[in-house]
Design goal:
The structure holds 2 protein chains of 2 kinds.
Chain A: H1 11-15, E1 19-20, H2 31-44, H3 54-73, E2 81-84, H4 87-102, E3 108-112, H5 117-130, E4 133-137, H6 147-153, E5 158-164, H7 176-185, E6 189-193, H8 205-208, E7 212-216, E8 227-231, H9 233-238, E9 249-252, E10 257-259, H10 273-288, H11 291-310, E11 315-317, E12 326-331, H12 336-345, E13 348-349, E14 351-353, H13 358-364, E15 369-373, H14 380-400
Parallel strand pairs in A: 1-13, 3-4, 3-5, 5-6, 6-7
Antiparallel strand pairs in A: 2-8, 7-8, 9-10, 11-12, 12-15, 14-15
Helix pairs in contact in A: 2-10, 3-10, 4-5, 11-14
Chain B: H1 2-9, H2 11-17, E1 30-37, E2 42-51, E3 54-63, H3 66-79, H4 84-98, H5 125-141
Antiparallel strand pairs in B: 1-2, 2-3
Classes of the chains: A alpha/beta, B alpha+beta.
Chain lengths: 402, 142
């Protein structure tokens, strides 16, 4: 029996017969995170930055402690960490605040067809509203962003480079550090979508030197409703809040008001406090375990599963060389949604559809695909169940006459 | 497993493989409605020709999963020749049936009856609904 030291921490695995291969959409939550969220709701329930009683103090302490934990986790300082609703809200904040004010007609914004809609649409919107030009990095024959292809579109007009660190469909790792260096040589700012990276590799913003970096809590063992925008202080300081209201102001007059310093000026109203505290506990989990050992395990699982799936006639795999835990595929002649119902009937949880990345589907020239995403709590036994289900699915749809 | 087999077995796969009344006509006397299911990329257009409160013709075009495409084909066969009043009642009942809501079981849904199996797959209700919703919109547009 293979040992997986992490598995027992996840009640959905231990309590159900479920093969969860959809962690790239949302990870399962460990007991410690569930307990932390419950502790807030059960024992504290108080608002932050306001009350002086014990519960309010502890809630504020835990919320701000999470900011410090996030900062340490990515090698930033707490002042550079903004809590948001998720990676989507974080990327929108950069585009709506920094982008709309600092981008002008004729400027160029570099994106790619690998972008999740949350990384693409905020900048498409800025381009449409400001008259800037959206420029796509040509993908190579495998669908990767390469340094050479990036250089081919980088110009003196480039003002923003908004790219994914790891593709959420194909799982390719972008050579982001090199790209950031090249972008900075042209004085462009860099906005990195790290939603798929933060749970698969150590991320150090000082080494990367990125200007902004966004990720979500719920893909890295934390709760939904909380995400992080990292921004260099020099940018956060000049950016206007896109939401105004409670808690984010300093001094309110009848006809004007002043804001708190960043990051607080970006956190208007009551934030998802329980989720923020849960994210802090999720980060504890990462700090207590060895992310490289976890990722080694994921890559072994991926290699094994890919090799087996590849042998099945009637399967097309779209990312054969992917270096992370994703397998994007289809059963030939079967729509992804028909196929995913078969897997669901066998308690194998996959994602089917366009994965909020329609440009990837268009690039692959398909309508939709299935995506299996492997994570550290998966086992070879999980992979075998998935492989068997795939073999049987091919037989089933063949028998049904697809 | 049996659920899935039953769902695909009967009418659904037959219509998926051999769709009826497929292909749009460049004829302005048809009311045309296009609906997309943004979560999976299903994309269906329904054309309806109504004359003297009768559905004289109904056509479909689009792409999507077997449930989506077959239900568009079944829709057209069910509706051709019906009065608009009757068509509206059938479509309304069908949409309630697949969504597992209370519906009038006395109304004859003809071949479309088999889509009751979709209730076992709540995630697929949308797939079974979009062609029929497009048809309802066409009736309302008219």
């Amino acid at each position: 029996m293979e040992q997986n030291i992490w598995r027992a921490d996840f009640p959905q695995i231990t309590e159900k017969d479920m093969i969860y291969l959809d962690s790239a959409a949302s990870s399962l939550k460990p007991n410690s995170v569930i307990m932390a969220v419950t502790h807030y709701d059960h024992d504290l329930s108080a608002n932050i930055h306001r009350g002086v009683y014990k519960e309010a103090y502890e809630a504020t302490f835990l919320y701000e402690e999470t900011r410090e934990k996030v900062a340490r986790f990515i090698n930033a300082i707490p002042e550079e960490i903004v809590f948001t609703r998720g990676a989507t809200a974080a990327l929108n904040l950069v585009a709506l605040s920094y982008g709309l004010k600092n981008i002008h007609p004729g400027d160029e914004i570099i994106v790619s067809e690998l972008e999740h809609h949350s990384s693409l649409l905020p900048w498409q919107n800025v381009a449409l509203k400001t008259g800037a030009k959206l420029v796509y990095v040509p993908l190579d024959s495998e669908g990767r962003i390469t340094i050479a292809n990036f250089e081919s579109v980088l110009s003196d007009h480039t003002k923003v480079v908004a790219l994914t660190y790891i593709s959420n469909v194909l799982g390719y790792i972008t050579p982001i550090a090199e790209i950031i260096t090249l972008a900075h040589a042209k004085k462009a700012i860099t906005v990195i979508d790290a939603a798929q990276a933060i749970e698969h590799m150590p991320v150090d913003v000082k080494t990367l030197k990125c200007d902004f970096l966004a990720f979500s809590g719920h893909k890295m063992l934390g709760p939904t409703g909380i995400g992080i925008l990292y921004g260099k202080q020099e940018y956060l300081e000049i950016m206007e809040p896109i939401e105004v209201g409670g808690d984010m102001n300093d001094n309110v007059n009848k006809y004007d008001a002043e804001w708190k310093d960043s990051p607080y000026k970006f956190e208007a109203g009551t934030m998802p406090i329980a989720s923020a505290i849960g994210l802090g506990t999720a980060i504890d989990y990462w700090q207590e375990h060895n992310i490289m050992a976890m990722e080694d395990h994921v890559r072994r699982l991926r290699k094994y599963t890919y090799t087996q799936i590849k042998k099945i006639p009637g399967i097309t795999i779209y990312n054969p060389t992917s270096e992370t835990g994703l397998i994007a595929f289809n059963i030939d002649g079967v729509h992804a949604h028909d196929a995913s119902s078969y897997f669901a009937e066998h308690n194998v949880c996959l994602r089917a559809g366009h994965h909020c990345a329609q440009l990837v589907m268009k690039w692959l020239n398909i309508e939709a695909c299935l995506r299996a995403s492997l994570f550290f709590y998966n086992t070879f036994a999980d992979c075998d169940r998935f492989i068997d289900a795939t073999k049987n699915a091919v037989k089933f749809f063949h028998k049904m006459g697809f | 497993m049996e659920n899935l087999e039953n769902l695909y077995r009967e009418v659904i796969l037959e219509h998926y493989k051999n769709p009826r009344n497929k292909g749009l006509l460049p004829d302005p006397s048809y009311v045309t409605v296009h609906i997309k299911n943004p979560s999976c990329g299903d994309d269906i257009t329904i054309q309806t020709k109504i004359k003297d409160n009768q559905i004289v013709d109904c056509r479909h075009e689009g792409k999507g999963c077997s449930i989506c495409c077959s239900s568009a084909s079944v829709l057209t066969e069910t509706m051709i020749g019906k009065s608009t009043d009757k068509a509206k009642i059938i479509a309304d009942n069908y949409l309630k049936m697949v969504a597992n809501k209370i519906y009038d079981e006395k109304i004859d849904l003809e071949e479309a009856e088999v889509y009751i199996g979709v209730r076992q797959f709540p995630a697929r209700v949308k797939c079974a609904s979009i062609a029929w919703q497009a048809f309802m919109q066409a009736l309302a547009k008219k």
